[in-house]
Amino acid sequence: ENSLQKISTSSSVKPSGIFVSPYALNLSSFTKLVRRLQEKHPKFSRGEIVEAVQEVRKMNKGVLSGLAISSIEEKASAIL
Fold first, then answer.
1. Number of neighbours of residue 49 by Cβ within 10 angstroms
2. How far apart are CA 36 and CA 7, in angstroms?
């Protein structure tokens, strides 16, 4: 019973009744971050930008959560 409660609270249902996975929400933030970096650094490929974001993650003990998007953007820009 407790595990079912945990599952139901970790997901989101939009008012339209469409189920949204918490992972999709994180992916959306990642996509926005990559787009912002692509706009800021048009000479770099998407792959190079993703590698820079992954490097920021490595520098932050393997996680990006807890860092502001602007902070991740700054650090990735410095790497690029």
1. 22
2. 32
Per-residue burial over 23-37, b = 16 or more CB atoms within 10 Å of its CB, e = otherwise = eeeeeeeeeebbebb
Predicted structure pTM score: 0.65
Q: Measured in whole angstroms, how far is the alpha carbon of residue 78 from the centre of its chain?
A: 18
Cα dihedral 73, 76, 78, 80 sign = negative
Enter the DSSP assignment of 68.
Answer: -
Identify whether the C-beta of residue 64 lies closer than 8 Å to the C-beta of residue 72: yes
What distance lies between CA 43 and its chain's CA centroid? 22
User: Both tokens of residue 18?
Assistant: 């469409």
| Regions of the chain short of the pLDDT cut 70 | 1-27
Categorise residue 66: left if φ over 0, alpha if ψ from -120 to 50, beta otherwise: left
